[in-house]
Structure formats: structure tokens, C-alpha cells
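Entry 14. Structure prediction run on the chain below.
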Amino acid sequence: MSEENTNGVAAPAENTANGPAFTIEKIYVKDVSFESPNSPAIFGENVQPDLQLNLNQRVQRLSEQVFEVVLGVTLTCKVGDKTAYVAEVQQAGAFGLVGLEPQAIDVLLGTQCPAILFPYVRTLVSDLIQAGGFPPFYLQPINFEGLYAETLRQRQAQADGASLADAEPAGNA
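Output returned:
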């Protein structure tokens, strides 16, 4: 049995007697946008399209045990100097994390949660592009574990840089 929290998402049932738990509470679309500012003229262009992909992720704590993860994708297609389309999707999920250490929670939020959301993003982006009159486009699989490892390296480099700055002697007056 789960209780409703103040955000309308069911809080995971207490499962500490059975050990740690990771649950998918809800998966939903947070925001969708598709623009094709140069259609229908752009359909007649015979130039190789240039695609630019921007991927981002946000995490927000909804309650003590529930986190919202938002996987955002912006795909921009240009034909020459004209924009053929811009597809933006923010796919979200509420995930219950019970009885886990902070490091394990960080790993799950950075790897498993976006991996769960990605197929939804991929389908929605492809459907938007095709509905806009363009050939279907399928996002290639993304290695979220590799991206998370890179994020950890960047955090460590920033921490090392900050500790070096703190360790430097103050200048002479």
C-alpha cells in the first residue's frame, strides 16, 4: 500500500523490513515542442541535413523517498542555413528509492532512471519528427553509465580545483 504525497505521486510503501527498494512510481511527459519554421519550402531542399542533439537531465526530490528525474532532449535539424525543425521533449519519471545509501541513490538517479526514460523520449522524438512531415529519426542508444562516470570525473576535477585554490597562499600586500 502506498500513500499520496503532496505532489500527487504515490509514496513508495515502507519496505525497510524487506531491504532496499527501487520503484517506478510514474512516467509522464513534462513538456513537448515541435517547430518547423521553414515548412513547406524546406521540404524541397536537396541538401544533407545537419543534426545537433542536446541532452540534459534534472533531478528533484519530491519527498524523502521519491525523486523526479527529467530527461530532456532537443534535436535541431538545419538544412544549409535554414532550420528544418526543432524537436524538444522533457520526459519525466517519479522514482521511489527506499533504504539506500546516498551514493547508491546518486548512481541510480544518474544511470538507471534516465535509461528507463530514454525509450519514451526516443519514441516521442521520432513520432514528432515524422508527424512534422520529415523522415523518421531514431536516437541512437546512450550509455548513461559512461555519462555518469564522466560527471563523476568532472565533479572530482572541480573538487580538486577548489581544494587547490583553497591551499594557495594569499598574496603579499
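Residues 102-131 form the longest helix (30 residues).
Filed with the rest of this week's runs.
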